[in-house]
Amino acid sequence: MAKSKKEVILLNISGKDKPGLTASLMEVLAQYNVNILDMGQSVIHQDLGLGILFEVPKESKSSSILKDLLFKSYELGTHIKFTPIPVDKYEEWVSNQGKGRYIITLLAPRLTASDLSQVATVIVEQKLNIDTISRLSGRKSLMKKDNVAKAVVEFTVRGTPVDMTAMKQELLNISSGSDFDIAFQEDNVFRRSRRLVCFDMDST
User: Which band of pLDDT confidence, cut at 50, 70 and 90, is reported for residue 119?
Assistant: First the structure.
């Protein structure tokens, strides 16, 4: 079998978030007409974590792309890391997208490391992998007391649970013995299409 000449590179950028940072990096990549295969970004307390997975076009040299990205990162005051991804590993990663996806949502007055540890332990015991963790609630003040505000965190996990019934029961047990609620649901079109419609039938 002929050796593949395709090049796939994972780009990781970290540093202080600032307006125009993503646009500046994309401008460099656009000059070489690269194909973006995947990307994700998160910002916690103004600290940026940005990942871009891209394919190098046949007509471009990866060394030139990486050099320009390195200079741009220096101008932006960010740290940059390049990781070459073997094509077979990329294809293996792509094949995993057919596996089941589930959403685990935690709701509490406040979330502790112990709460998250218990849920994460169930996830790993069921042979599932965490794809993303997102905060759905607003930021909580340390100075102002707010009895209404809640902390909400959502896990997106992928895979096939070892025992679905046992997993649901374990999550229920954790919720029952703690000060937070857990929602577990399959991530599919039916979850995303749920809507609540209200009609005002008052004749006035």
Answer: very high
- Residue 117 has a CB neighbour count (10 Å cut-off) of 9
DSSP state of 140: P
pLDDT tens by residue, 68-106: 999 999 999 999 999 999 999 999 888 877 778 999 999
| 3-class secondary-structure state, position 103 | strand
97 DSSP assignment? G
| H helix intervals, the chain | 21-31, 62-76, 87-95, 113-125, 164-176, 189-192
How many whole angstroms separate alpha carbon 132 and alpha carbon 123?
13
pTM of the model: 0.73
Are 31 and 89 part of one and the same domain? yes
Read out DSSP for 26-45?
A: HHHHHHTTPEEEEEEEEEET
- CATH number of the domain at 183, please: 3.30.70.260
